[in-house]
Specification:
Chain A is α/β, with parallel strands linked by helices and 480 residues long. Chain A contains 12 helices and 25 strands. In chain A, helix 3 (47-62) runs antiparallel to helix 9 (178-186). Chain B is globular. Classes of the chains: A alpha/beta (480), B alpha/beta (412).
Chain lengths: 480, 412
């Protein structure tokens, strides 16, 4: 019992809430052309990349911060942020993992990221992004053999400019919305994946993001290209230290699937959610968009959102190729003062396109949880189908659960189905579990895991276990 | 248009004997409208129907002053059941007749008691600013109105490019009941009608309200309803939306006290280039209330149908039962159907769900009927009629049900 209690106690609070004392190189505070040039310069970027950034910045200056979302937040002073923060030891780029700052490795160890031997045992290729830059990528050799490119964004800009030039900004253009353009202007690093024709990526690719330095925003950019007939499964995990102030995370993720290709993108997002009174925490304003460019392509998003003070994101699929498929599976859990406004967009452009949305929202404490989604079937998308199911679970009467689906149909040969329910854990269910010897919290964890099962099943093995645990932990103390 | 509007408003003020407080309310409403203008698609509530664009596309100029008619010849409508009636001409009370009822129990009055709220909705600002009178109907405590009350809305012949603002307040006192039919029968050239009803349902009272917009007209209409329900009261609401060129029905229901219930059903049946919207907000404020909504749409030619529904459950409203279903049949390549069924829930012990589907007629059903000797178009007609009939069958007043079937051409 004691050891179990200890384990619970240790899990109960945000276990990734340490910060590591590492010397950082920062860009001067504020946002202006000089800072963008500084970032571009320090990363030794070619001219076209700088132009890309400046173009985005020009556009950014004209844009207004959106305010239609439900979770309101105090105004962010974009001039009071550091837009670039890199661990100092990166300045002379390490040749191998052994050259890395031992403290950095220690941090990752605490996070449980298998960077070295562990990685080999687990068979997951990891790219770790610390604050703003990518620090290490494992398993490079084996991937290279198959022609797979898996590296940091900065490296890709240097070594594979033709691919980056062709695809970067093709799904999220520099002229997109406020946070996406901000990212285009100041993004620092991220992951780049290219899977060549007819290659099935033999292992799960994974990125771990961590915000360490204070007063920094994290702006990474991920670009995944799956060439004809290829397949890739990509995992993303996130943590941040506990801090009193709110930190901004505005990443852009672009996926491109060509003919017959399939991309599976899974996220377990566990950014610091703020303390019990809602102080501090990460603002997670991320733009994720996938383009099913080719015929018979498929993009599948799976997300488990348990962290962040405010989550505001809509991973979307643009189903352009005929017969393409988009899927979205989501679990969002909010507790204490957390707020989430999340969902997806399925834009059907090609013929015979299909999409499926399964969203499970759980709100507890004083939190607010919102599903907002768009299904848009254009007049040319004959025989398209969409099925949407969003279920919400409420715990206590101080939280809220909202569902706002936008359903647009311009095609008579297409079908859209949407259903949503809101309920609570019934006393009968709890009683039944208690009767069989489970205590209140175990019972809640069991029932919630059952509620989320459809989504949890979609996660790769390694993540499914972690996610299940996370679901239980996030709701500790919310019932009773 | 802005200057004309101001002149029109000044004229309204100078022609009528408004009291100072009325003038003040009107002026404030007018200022709010003047400043913000008509809502456009940037406004979330008007996302799918940009009224600003619709008005400017259809009218070069709008005339806001319509004289009260002294004499008007009412047209005959084929109503085969006994009924009471009130007729409005150009939005103003013209005549009423309660031959089947106890005259002391029903009050019909006309005055100008405007509430002093300054609305955020600029169409309501416009309505308050240009109203010259509010018609009030009161049903006395404990009285059950025997026959359906029909509100006829006429427009005088030759009226065009005019903005008609009208408002009717209905008060059902406790333990009373009323069957009310809004007959949107105006049949004239293009006008903009801004029609508002405010209804209060007392304790243990029942209101059956049927809104029939079935006469083809070129009019652009905005129909706003505010309904407040007291303890243990019931509202049956029905919408038949098929006649006007454009109509948006904006229905706000507040369940102010325990055990109230609402059944809100509607049909959107469109052809040509018509554009209809139904927007509902059901506000569950107290415990143990129920609401049920069913909206079915059939879209032909180049028409556009929209349903925006919202169920709001406040933290006190435990044991709420809320349900919302929208189904649409798309019958032509150029039609468009948009839906936004919303749930906003702050209480945990509730049962709320919604569903929305849109698609084409099932080809297997057509095949089945054709194999039994029906033509393609007959089969299609039979299936769409059956689809809509489910909603019509929910009407509890038999006379009105028959009328609705006749108007919509559905005889199953």
């Amino acid at each position: 019992m004691d050891s179990r209690q200890k384990e619970i106690d240790s899990l109960k609070d945000y276990k990734y809430g340490f910060s590591t004392d590492i010397e950082n190189t920062k860009a001067p505070k504020g946002l202006n052309e000089d800072v963008i040039k500084f970032i571009s310069n320090i990363k030794k970027e070619p001219q076209w990349m700088l132009d890309f950034r400046l173009k985005a910045f020009e556009r950014f200056k004209q844009l207004k911060e959106p305010d239609w979302q439900k979770p309101k937040y105090p105004k962010i002073d974009y001039q009071d942020l550091y837009y670039y923060s890199a661990p100092k030891s990166m300045k002379d780029k390490p040749k191998s993992l052994d050259d890395l700052d031992p403290k950095l490795l220690e941090t990752y160890k605490k996070l449980g990221i298998p960077l070295q031997e562990q990685a080999r045992l687990n068979g997951i290729a990891v790219d770790a992004v610390f604050d703003s830059v990518s620090v290490a990528t494992t398993f490079k050799e084996e991937l290279t053999k198959q022609g797979i490119i898996f590296c940091s964004m900065s490296e890709a800009i240097q070594k594979h400019p033709e691919l980056v030039k062709k695809y970067l900004g093709s799904v999220i253009p520099t002229t997109d919305h406020f946070f996406a353009t901000l990212n285009s202007a100041v993004f620092t690093d991220g992951s780049f994946v290219y899977i060549p024709e007819n290659v099935k990526c033999p292992m799960e690719l994974s990125t771990y993001f961590r915000i360490n330095a204070s007063e920094t925003g994290q702006f990474e950019r991920t670009l995944i290209i799956a060439d004809k007939g290829s397949y890739v499964s990509y995992l993303e995990g996130c943590t941040a230290p506990m801090r009193d102030e709110n930190q901004l995370h505005a990443a852009n993720v672009e996926l491109i699937a060509l003919d017959d290709a399939e991309i599976k993108y899974s996220t377990v997002q566990n950014w610091y959610p703020g303390d019990k009174d809602g102080k501090g925490g990460i603002y997670n304003f991320v733009t994720k968009r996938g383009l099913c460019k080719g015929k018979n392509s498929k993009i599948s998003w799976t997300q488990v959102e348990t962290g962040s003070a405010i989550t505001w994101k809509y991973p979307s699929c643009i189903l352009k190729g005929d017969n393409s498929i988009g899927e979205f599976y989501s679990i969002a859990i909010t507790n204490n003062h957390q707020k989430a406004d999340t969902g997806t967009k399925m834009i059907h452009l090609g013929k015979n396109t299909k999409s499926k949305i399964i969203s499970k929202g759980i709100s507890a404490g004083k939190s607010d949880m919102m599903y907002r989604g768009l299904v848009d079937i254009s007049s040319k998308a004959d025989n398209s189908r969409n099925f949407t199911q969003c279920d919400s679970l409420l715990m206590g009467n101080k939280c809220g659960a909202h569902t706002i689906p936008y359903i647009k149909n311009k095609n008579l040969k297409s079908n859209i189905e949407h259903e949503a329910t809101t309920s609570k854990i019934s006393d009968e269910q709890l009683y039944y579990c208690n009767q069989r010897g489970l205590n209140q919290e175990e019972a809640v964890s069991l029932i919630v895991n059952g509620f989320c099962k459809e989504v949890l099943q979609q996660l790769p093995m390694e993540f499914a276990v972690e996610a299940q645990k996370l679901v239980g932990i996030s709701l500790e103390g919310s019932v009773g | 248009m802005q200057n004309e509007l101001k002149l029109n408003f000044d004229k309204i003020i100078s022609l009528n004997n408004f009291s100072d407080s009325q003038k003040k309310i009107k002026q404030e409403n007018f200022n709010n409208y003047f400043e913000k203008g008509l809502p456009n698609k940037r406004n979330e509530d008007w996302k799918f129907s940009d009224i600003n664009q619709i008005i400017s596309k259809n009218f070069d100029n709008l005339n806001f002053i319509v004289d009260q008619k002294k004499f008007f010849e009412e047209k005959d409508f084929p109503l085969d059941f006994e009924h009471n009636k009130i007729s409005f001409v150009d939005g103003k009370l013209y005549d009423f007749d309660f031959k089947h009822e106890d005259k002391d129990k029903i009050l019909v009055d006309q005055n100008l008691d405007l509430d002093d709220t300054i609305y955020q909705n600029t169409l309501l600002n416009l309505n308050s600013a240009f109203l010259t009178s509010v018609s009030k109907i009161t049903i006395k405590k404990g009285y059950n109105v025997k026959k359906p009350l029909i509100l006829f809305n006429y427009l005088s012949d030759g009226l065009k490019s005019s903005a008609i603002n009208s408002r009717v307040d209905i008060n059902l006192e406790d333990e009373s009941s009323l069957c009310l039919v809004n007959f949107l029968n105006e049949n004239s050239e293009k006008n903009f009608i801004n029609f508002r009803q405010k209804i209060k349902i007392g304790e243990n009272s029942i209101l059956k309200n049927y809104n029939l917009d079935s006469y083809t007209s070129e009019n652009i209409k905005y129909f706003n309803k505010d309904i407040n329900l007291s303890k243990n009261s019931h509202l049956e609401y029905f919408i038949l939306s098929e006649g006007s060129k454009f109509i948006k029905q904006d229905i706000n229901c507040n369940l102010d006290d325990e055990y109230g219930s609402i059944a809100l059903n509607g049909i959107i049946n469109l052809e040509n280039e018509k554009h209809h919207e139904i927007k509902t907000v059901i506000n569950h404020k107290k415990e143990n209330c129920k609401s049920y909504q069913l909206i079915k749409s059939v879209l032909n030619d180049k028409s556009k149908g929209i349903y925006q529904g919202k169920i709001f459950v406040s933290p006190e409203a435990q044991k709420t039962d809320g349900y919302q279903l929208s189904r649409a049949l798309l019958l032509n390549e150029s039609v468009e159907f948009n839906a936004k069924p919303e749930l906003e829930i702050y209480a945990d012990d509730v049962k709320c769900s919604h569903g929305s589907t849109s698609g084409n007629i099932d080809e297997n059903s057509i095949f089945y009927l054709m194999s039994r000797g029906l033509s393609y178009s007959e089969s299609k007609k039979l299936l769409t009629n059956g689809f809509l009939n489910e909603v019509i069958e929910k009407i509890s007043n038999e006379d009105v049900k028959r009328l609705v079937k006749k108007l919509s051409g559905i005889n199953v």
